[in-house]
Amino acid sequence: MQYIDNIIFIIALIVGFRLFFKSLKEIYRNILLGRKIDRSDRPAERWATMGKVALGQSKMTKRPIAGILHIIVYVGFVIINLELLEIIIDGVFGTHRFLAGIFGNSFYNAFTATLEILALLVVLAVVVFFIRRNFYGVKRLTMKELFGWPKQDANWILIIEFALMAAFFTMNAADWSLQQKGAGEALGYYPVSSAVLGPLFGNFSEGALVILERGAWWFHFIGILFFMNYLYYSKHLHIIFAFPNTWFANLEKKGKFNNLASVTQEIKLMMDPNADPYAAAPEADPNAVPEKFGADDIFDLNQVQLLNAYSCTECGRCTAVCPANITGKKLSPRKIMMDTRDRLEEVGKNINKNGKFVDDGKKLIDDHIQREEIWACTTCNACVEACPVLIDPLSIIMEMRRFLVMEQSAAPQELNLMMTNVENNAAPWQYNQADRLKWASE
Amino acid sequence: MDFTLKTMAEYAAEGKSPEVLFWVGCAGSFDDRAKKITRAFCKILNKINVEFAVLGPEESCTGDPAKRAGNEFVFQMMALTNIEVLNAYDVKKIVTACPHCFNTLKNEYPNLGGNYEVIHHTQFLKQLMEEGRLKIEGGSFKGRKITFHDPCYLGRGNGEYEAPRMLLEKLDAELVEMKRCKTNGLCCGAGGAQMFKEPEKGAKDINVERTEEALSVKPNVIATGCPFCMTMMTDGVKHFDNTTVEVKDIAELLAEADDL
Ligand code: SF4
Ligand code: SF4
Fold first, then answer.
1. Which residues are near ligand 2 (CB < 6 Å)?
2. What is the ipTM of this complex?
3. Which of A408, B60, B93, B115 is buried most deeply by CB count within 10 Å?
4. Contact check, Cβ <8 Å, B210/A372
5. What's the pTM?
6. How far is CA B220 from the centre of its chain?
7. What is the pLDDT of residues A321-370, one digit of tens each?
8. Atom 5 (ligand 1) nearest CA
9. Contact partners, residue A133, CB within 8 Å, separation at least 6
């Protein structure tokens, strides 16, 4: 029976990771529902962008308070996860503080002490974040679109992180207390937990301390597995997706919108004076899907836009700078991203249930995103500039406008007038093209 | 007309080609306020003997408002027509006082077969200044305060924040920045075809919000580099019944400095 611990540990590890990969596979499948887009050009620039923005957090510090706290949690969390490595080795092989033997005493001391200090910083940051989010009234964190799950989600993440850190300290403090009693080999140096929790544990019996240490150790381990699997349901998915998301980011000038190639063909044909208007239409490919312009659902968005939706942190930095939102209009670029993800998840569940997507009579437009939101955008790119993980909400808004105009002819009346003018008079106003030089003689 | 002006067709008839094509744009051609910007810019080019031409009746809308409203058909119809004209004249370099034309010509035409060096008029004026062709005497602006409103399609859209500021600094005025400027600039509310429709319901209009911010730095002049921003900010200033603050395009300020 002496291996029972190790066996349970290995089973938990396998189950945890399998569930996690299952979620990732599902997300991957959902992203592939979008249209293909080639974003493999300029790889060097892409790696550099990812390094700078995702790894280097270059956009976070634009809002210094949130930025610095975030970097603390981020660095702390990454480094503390090195500890996961030790936990796994110890768990599988039944060793205790395996890295101590590899690192040697003094380096292991430095290692454990560093982790403790980072963990303390994480705790402080998490507490400040919690207070700021719930009691401080930062506008972008208290908006209507966050009511319900998004708000709870944000709080749960903070609570889980806090609990993980608390377990980490408990484990260390109990271990340290055992070491003080001469019941364990003296390994590691624990400046924070020995000072804060150590005195509390002073009177505990050896047995109680062992239980406490093991309990915290297991809690910490299971907690990490849980957290990993929680990600799928959470905006916290960005801790993974920020990386591919920044890699696939749009590297073009923000003002440059794509030109639809299918439209070009048609117009070139229209404009070609040699084209015979009475000629039979070229043999149609019977398998060709009729070209659809723009997007009314997630299937018409491209795969990077769907990746964007999964990467959104719901931080609202985009919404906070959106001129439409600032002046009280319904448009919120964050909500555009959240809606896209919600719809994508809805479709994903539909596929899980039916084996393939069965029409549910719903669309991204109207059922999630209102036309009023779509028409309020000034295409100013403020949201794109603000996003810390290089998400492009504007591109989704534009695809939906294209759908409304080119598939449904459902633009606001004044815009129809403008477009007719452009078409007929070559200007958005009703002036004669022949008068284009009048300004010179006035 | 107190400046000379030739069209591309006239140049072609002489068997010559100008240094640069001035793309006037729809606002610059038809909007009464924006026409003043167009004329001011022509006067500056005249004064320093830059050979330039306009297309006149051969120019069409670039298609920007249609594209941003979602109408790719109308956009490409305009674009392909314009490209045909531009390529027929073998145009190499285009300058325009409208960031929307600038952005579209520069970024969206190449993919349709229109490859030109496209620059905004503030960039062109800066080039001319650096080449020593344009001299800016700013004496008359001493003691005045100017704040610059970044047009989205020049700034965030294309990363140009310096050219307009460099020109303004030469005017010897005091350049004051609004809190939301450069990459953080706030839209005037006209972009994305909003110029041509009523805004969606909200608490206030975007141009009012923006003008409020501009007025809060107590400028004598709100400088713009876009005919649409010009309209929005001018309306904003009127909204606040302010009769002392002027809204001026950078080209107008430079022409004024030179008494043109
Ligand atoms: S581009 Fe549109 S959605 Fe984004 S900030 Fe500007 S107005 Fe808002
Ligand atoms: S799109 Fe970007 S800025 Fe907006 S909420 Fe999501 S992560 Fe934040």
1. A 312-318, 333-334, 337, 386-387, 389, 391, 393
2. 0.95
3. B60
4. no
5. 0.93
6. 20
7. 999 999 999 999 999 999 999 999 999 999 999 999 999 999 999 999 99
8. A322
9. A141, A154, A155, A158
